[in-house]
């Protein structure tokens, strides 16, 4: 028996019908899901001799060469009118050439992909879920990247039988699928305008909980939203629906409409996998893929004020949702027609991830989902991370943006000593820019006006077609900001805090906007200037601050300290010695399997003590003066 239907009740749709048939067809067979394998068949007609196939090395939104091709085994191909098959030759780590193919030949290419990465960037296939990004699964045909594509996801019947639970197996995807069911398999058919559109649509097929809601734009048009959760969890779905809807409505109220609210997209999809400890999110034009600890989801007994863990999840939803406007629509100029085989360098990631990391938590309180008190606690966490990062005086946030490809996703024990995150400092630069705009315009303009102006530019001047988008560079960034503040003031701000490493004027700007700043003396010392974990073996050093007594003594990350001043190393013993007046102590530690001895003095050559204080503050509201900042006009 075979049935055919369009899945209108599931994921938000992208109306991808075409006047001409698809030129490039992909068939993904999940029959070997137990082995974490997907068998892919790619069919097309060659437009040139010896065409080249390639796979992205990275995925937009995650700026590291991920080398997805490492999960593909040998690529084979066969011409339509021949029985003989051929093995594709490799041109590079992620490119294959089909040397026996002539222009006009119709052919099939076959290969398998290993899928066992739980992150939101790749693909994961097992008995419980079939998840994938097409950057990991679909080889592109060079020269046909702009041609229409069609995809068939073929899921064997036994996957459904294994998952015959109270949760129905569903597909979540930003593309609207057409569904066909036979006795042996289930087929989901997807269409996209071209390869670059296709890779914007991750999918998940699994038992999933689902709810939906609508928000209204400034013209009272409704925009559909759907939220899927897979994995083991006991989330309070009613509470989650209420809170996420409030957040989404606040974004749309601010920006007027949404880039996914047109007839082309018809809505937005949240795809969430609940796990034990994994965490992350990745933005797409009308969806986001999230993975979260199940403990971050709201419980049946969730208080009116969300718990810290639930706030973290709501912040993740807010962050990735805003990226639909501020990364996927307004984007760095180098990401407009990007080659995913090579790095794309930009000094502006601080604008996109930094603005977003400020606005995501701000919108939690602007929407009324969390209180101003909770928001200030989130903000003070950002501030304390920044002030406790030594690298902030060495690396500018613009340089950090450039170095994303080699540093941000490859953090090690020296990261905090040598650099700064464009997420963390970028958020605080955004805060300072917001408050500076308010100060310079007597409260008339804000950072939110800058973002909205760029979005309006995208609608007026951006590339048309399936989606609006516009590229940002330093020139048009200055041009837009200069609409709301004097150009010379912006240039000075940028020279000091974006291209330079001067300390941000966080405290003075917050105090001018009704925020009380108190030094927090609780747990604000760091013995010997190092971080560590304690075990029965001793103290495992994880990080050593530059210019601390530990670093001058020669103690390094990964050392295991076993004795301090002749006594077994414990946290209590370390703290006792660090607080003592001893001029120096002897410390014994294992580095790898070698026992080493260190002489640790009670202060460094520059006068830093053995128990240095970390800069740490607490933020609170004054009786008044904060309203203009925390209560923007678009939520009134």
Question: Could you describe the 3D structure shown?
Answer:
With 636 residues, the protein is α+β, with helices and mostly antiparallel strands. The strands form 6 sheets. A 9-stranded mixed sheet has the order 1-15-16-13-2-3-9-5-6. Strands 10, 11, 14, 17, 18, 19, 20 and 21 form an 8-stranded mixed sheet that branches. Helix 4 links the parallel strand 18 and strand 19. The longest helix has 19 residues, at 237-255. The protein is globular, with a radius of gyration of 27 Å. Residues 1-19 have low confidence and may be disordered.
Helix segment count?
17
Please compute the radius of gyration using only Cα atoms: 27 Å
Name the overall outline. globular
What portion of residues is helical? 25-40%
Mean pLDDT across residues: 94
Fraction of residues in β-strands: 25-35%
Distance between the termini: 56 Å
Structural class: alpha+beta
What is the tally of beta strands? 31
Strand order of the largest sheet: 1-15-16-13-2-3-9-5-6
Biggest sheet details: 9 strands, mixed
Stretches where pLDDT falls below 50 for ≥5 residues? 1-19
Task: Produce a short descriptive summary.
By secondary structure, this protein is α+β, with helices and mostly antiparallel strands. Helix content is 26%, strand content 27%.
Outline the secondary-structure elements.
Blueprint: E1 3-6, E2 24-29, E3 37-45, E4 52-54, E5 76-79, E6 85-87, E7 89-92, E8 95-97, E9 106-114, E10 123-125, E11 130-132, H1 134-137, E12 140-141, E13 149-156, H2 157-162, E14 169-173, E15 178-181, E16 185-192, H3 195-198, E17 203-216, E18 222-230, H4 237-255, E19 268-275, E20 280-283, E21 287-293, H5 308-322, E22 330-332, H6 349-366, H7 372-387, H8 397-402, H9 415-418, H10 424-440, H11 447-461, E23 470-472, H12 474-481, H13 487-498, H14 506-511, E24 515-519, E25 530-535, E26 538-544, H15 549-553, E27 560-564, E28 567-568, H16 571-579, E29 584-591, E30 594-601, E31 617-621, H17 627-630
Parallel strand pairs: 2-13, 18-19, 19-21, 22-23
Antiparallel strand pairs: 1-15, 2-3, 3-9, 4-8, 4-12, 5-6, 5-9, 7-8, 10-11, 11-17, 13-16, 14-17, 15-16, 17-18, 20-21, 24-31, 25-26, 26-27, 27-28, 27-29, 29-30
Helix pairs in contact: 4-5, 5-6, 6-7, 6-10, 7-10
